[in-house]
Amino acid sequence: MRILVFGAGGQVGREVCRAAWPTACDVLALDHSSGDVTRTAEVSAVIAREKPDLVINLAAYTAVDRAESEPETAWAVNCAGAANIAAACGESATALIHLSTDYVFNGSKTGPYREDDEVNPLSVYGRSKEAGERAVRAGTARHVILRTAWVYGAQGTNFVKTMLQLGAARPVLRIVADQHGCPTAAVDIALALIVIAGAIERGKAKWGTFHFSGAGTTSWHGFAEEIIDVATLLGAWPIESRPRVEPITTDQYPTPARRPLNSVLDCRKIARSFGIFAPPWRTSLGPVVRELLHRTGRATCRSNDLAVSEFVEDHLRNDLR
Question: How far is Cα 122 from Cα 11, in angstroms, rounded to an integer?
Answer without folding.
Answer: 24
